[in-house]
Amino acid sequence: MDASSTGDFTTRLGAIAAETQGLLDRLLGETPEPGEIARPPRLVAAMRHAVLGGGKRLRPFLLVESAALFGVRQDGALLAGAALECVHGYSLVHDDLPAMDNDDLRRGRPTVHKAFDEATAILAGDALLTLAFDLIARAQVHSAPAVRVALSLELARAAGLGGMAGGQMLDLAAEGRFDGKHALSQAEIATLQAMKTGALIRFACRAGAILGEAAPDALASLDRFGVAIGQAFQIADDLLDVEGDTATLGKAAHKDAAAGKATLVAALGVAGAHERLADLVGEAEAALMSFGPKADILRVAARFIAERRS
Amino acid sequence: MDASSTGDFTTRLGAIAAETQGLLDRLLGETPEPGEIARPPRLVAAMRHAVLGGGKRLRPFLLVESAALFGVRQDGALLAGAALECVHGYSLVHDDLPAMDNDDLRRGRPTVHKAFDEATAILAGDALLTLAFDLIARAQVHSAPAVRVALSLELARAAGLGGMAGGQMLDLAAEGRFDGKHALSQAEIATLQAMKTGALIRFACRAGAILGEAAPDALASLDRFGVAIGQAFQIADDLLDVEGDTATLGKAAHKDAAAGKATLVAALGVAGAHERLADLVGEAEAALMSFGPKADILRVAARFIAERRS
Fold first, then answer.
1. Domain at A3-307, CATH from 1.10.1760.20, 1.25.40.10, 1.10.600.10, 3.10.450.50
2. In chain B, which residues have their Cβ closer than 8 Å to the Cβ of A99?
3. Structural contact between residues A266 and A44, judged by C-beta atoms closer than 8 angstroms
4. Given an 8 Å threshold on Cβ–Cβ distance, is B169 in contact with A120?
5. What number of other Cβ atoms are within 10 A of residue A73's Cβ?
6. Alpha helix stretches (DSSP H) within chain A
7. Cα distance from B145 to chain A (closest Cα, Å)?
8. pLDDT in tens, B198-220
């Protein structure tokens, strides 16, 4: 991994973020699509607030670059990536609600329920989740309906009861919301995180292989890569909470630690967590072995995810 | 329309309701499906509370019976109907939330946020909406991926920003939630209702034709039927609120009228609304002309929807 690969990575991450932003901007206009009756301006505005406020667009990057391993044309992968950003955005809007994590700020701006109101935030999240399944079913994603329906089914499983939404439920339960605080085992923390944040990152990588109509062993390789970087992403996030300062993060540091949140950093200690991160980067790189140098940008991405400072 | 068609209709409505209940019961177990990591029991319980508490299952009935016009086998249509019930169920859970309509009772039982809590209700709604797109993408719905992806796209458009979720947004706005109460024109009320309740009923009828790989004119006929009965459903609902008593309805009567809610009954008067209902039943029946006697059960359904007393 030389300086030029790192430069390539930074350039590509920025380019895909810009493309995703432009695409979401065009998709979230006030003109109804066929089959829609009207788009209420207030709901459009709240959805735009939720998904056009920035972010690294890491999930679309992983999807587009995984698909590129199989020579998939970028426009279809970008649209699937935009669908994934809608799911990610909806989850942030609902998680921020007063009845959930009750956060007023997100990426330095008011959360949707602060900028608008709670009812609008609930509906904006609902409509973003629904839009994701609209986008991923569109013919522009891939010419083969079998590919689109496979993506849609996998996205639903990754986002729903047995994935992201279920993970948020486990997180609230662990906080003691329902019947007292539970001390989670390392295995339980791993399950919670695999669901809450891991599932969508894993989906992003698998989706590239599905778009590429990859052979089963190539899909399995990207699955292993996705699982490893999903875990790395969460440990890096938990380390940032412990080691970061509020100025660098742009959000409150030490919040999870103060809340006594169940994290692998709490379970492994800071040094143990850094070791585990290095192991996960190794696993992610090993998973990409069969792709050779064309997977270099994903290898740099794995390091970036593990080492990021914000 | 003789007594025997009405008997057939009542029997079929009950049979499809029972099948739908059994199917949802089996689908909402605690064992994860492939691609799911774990199903948190509390979230499963809240989702079950939301969709297993009864209801006429009118949308699955319309979907299954529309599909039957084209000789579609019932198990695929029932699974698509179960997906539609998940969308309907999610919308009730979120609409009942304190930040939305703030209802404590639904079908004589506590609403999900009363039986559980607000955070669980938000997540249960989210997970039901997501599950709908899981179910409708399954191979058991139809052997052709193109059919499943078409259903999924139409369901997303019917349920989202330009359909049901958008309709709820317009309804909250009309109540004066954001910038004062608006007197809506008849056209605006019609748009609101076509989105909030009409879109899913219309989808149910269109979905039957899509499952049946119907010719464009047959799809257009079922579309017209779905639009007419969707309007009839809402007017009948609004008339029930004005004419019904609480004992018969099982919920508070005169609630919408007391809230000064924008309805076509308020705009047309009770007698005018009854006339409009009769016209809509005529339109619905006319739309089914080309199907001959095999559509009799849908003709009875149109009358049932217009004349129901609860």
1. 1.10.600.10
2. 117-119, 122
3. no
4. yes
5. 11
6. 3-27, 41-51, 58-68, 74-95, 112-115, 118-136, 145-159, 164-174, 186-193, 199-211, 216-243, 246-249, 255-258, 264-287, 296-307
7. 5
8. 999 999 999 999 999 999 999 99
Contact state of B123 with A177 under an 8 Å Cβ cutoff? no
H/E segment holding residue B23: helix B3-27
Residue with tokens 């440990």: A235
Quick one: tokens of B190?
A: 């019609």
Q: Distance, in angstroms, between A35 CA and closest chain B CA?
A: 6
User: Which of A200, A199, A281 shows the shortest CA–CA distance to A235?
Assistant: A281
Is B133 in Cβ contact with A119 (below 8 Å)?
A: no
* List of residues 6+ apart from B282 with CB closer than 8 A: none
Do the Cβ atoms of A124 and A118 come closer than 8 Å? Answer: no
- Distance to chain A for B44, nearest Cα, Å: 8
Contact A134 B123 (CB under 8 A): no
Cα–Cα dist A177/B117, whole Å = 10
* Interchain pair A160, B199: CB under 8 A: no
Please provide the distance, in angstroms rounded to a whole number, between the alpha carbons at the two ends of chain B: 22
> Per-residue confidence of chain A (310 residues) as pLDDT tens digits?
556 678 899 999 999 999 999 999 999 999 999 999 999 999 999 999 999 998 999 999 999 999 999 999 999 999 999 999 999 999 999 999 999 999 999 989 999 999 999 999 999 999 999 999 999 999 999 999 999 999 999 999 999 999 999 999 999 999 888 888 778 899 999 999 999 999 999 999 999 999 999 999 999 999 999 999 999 999 999 999 888 755 555 555 556 655 667 788 888 899 999 999 999 999 999 999 999 999 999 999 999 999 987 7
Interface contact B191-A37, CB threshold 8 A: yes
Kindly report, residue by residue over B125-173, the tens digit of the pLDDT.
999 999 999 999 999 999 999 999 999 999 999 999 999 999 999 999 9
Q: Which residues of B touch A129 (CB under 8 A)?
A: 126, 129-130
- Token pair for residue A100? 């959930």
Instruction: Summarize pLDDT for A177-234 with one digit per residue, the tens.
Output: 888 877 889 999 999 999 999 999 999 999 999 999 999 999 999 999 999 999 999 9
Closest to A202 measured CA to CA, from A241, A167, A246: A167
Q: Residue A263, Cα to own-chain centre: how many angstroms?
A: 18
Residues of B in contact with A200 (CB under 8 A): none
CA quadruple B52, B57, B59, B60: dihedral sign = positive
